[in-house]
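Before drawing any conclusions, I needed to go through one protein's amino acid sequence and its backbone structure tokens, quoted below without any editing.
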Amino acid sequence: GVLALFDPPRYDTKKTIETAVDMGVEVKMITGDQTAIAKETCRELGMGTNILNTEVLNTPDALGARLEEIIMRSNGFAEVYPEHKFLIVDKIRQEGFVTGMTGDGVNDAPALKRADIGIAVEGATDAAKAASDIVLTEPGLSVIIEAIQRSRKIFQRMRNYCIYRIACTIQLLLFFFFAVLAIDPGRYMPANGSAPA
């Protein structure tokens, strides 16, 4: 007999990925599943099908490019071990990108810890939760988009406030600077040197 197995993505994953891409966030899949399964899942989610396996990570010189370039050009990796996940996250960080990682298992813990933003999804193991910066308590990934939107608003408000305060400080300094140059205090003193009554 043949037993068919189907492990679909979470119900809101496709919309979450589309929204993230529209917001300028590049999404990559890193999975321990077989390459064909990873490609099919990426195709369903509209992520691209340039999925590489661990041979590229173990022997990057075979493609004649730096490992960082290979990682950035790919849509993801399949058949990876925990050390590969850690390596991929570390290389992306070394390229100067703020890196987020989602995971739920013990095998994700090193990469979750290494990422700038480690996110343990609902139902994650204790090891994944301990290694993460954020722990989701509800099913689904759409809350990540809300977190990105809120953090961008907070950053923009802080940036605007800093620009405002710097501009006010410069304005005040320039006022006093020109006031010192333009106003002669001697003109406002009485002739005999005593203070006015």
Remarks:
- The longest strand covers residues 100-103.
- The radius of gyration is 28 Å.
- Residues 142-182 form the longest helix (41 residues).
- The chain has a mean pLDDT of 88.
